[in-house]
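In line with agreed milestones, work has continued on tokenised descriptions of protein folds. One protein thus recorded appears below exactly as we store it:

>
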Amino acid sequence: MITAEKVYKEILEMPVTEREKLSAVIARRGFEKDLYKHEEVFDEIRQSPFSLKEAAEYLQAAEITVRRWVKAGKLKYRRVGRNFAFDPDELKAFKKTKKERGTPLKF
């Protein structure tokens, strides 16, 4: 089975000139696709809680907007001390719902 760790080790064993060629190939061909589906990018999203800042980045909204959604009861969260913590699955569902409704993620 190919793993990222094995590939990385093999890359380190390559001569420097080959590593440079590999970098050039990846830069040219590695990201040829212009548009990616939401699922392609975020399906493997981490499972640890998101901070307010991370949630705002994921939802492509300002932190104040995320705070408004929380205050309005539109977005679930929990408190960890004085900080907000957002469940990744809740964020994914919230973003998907907003997208399906055609509602911009702005408040």
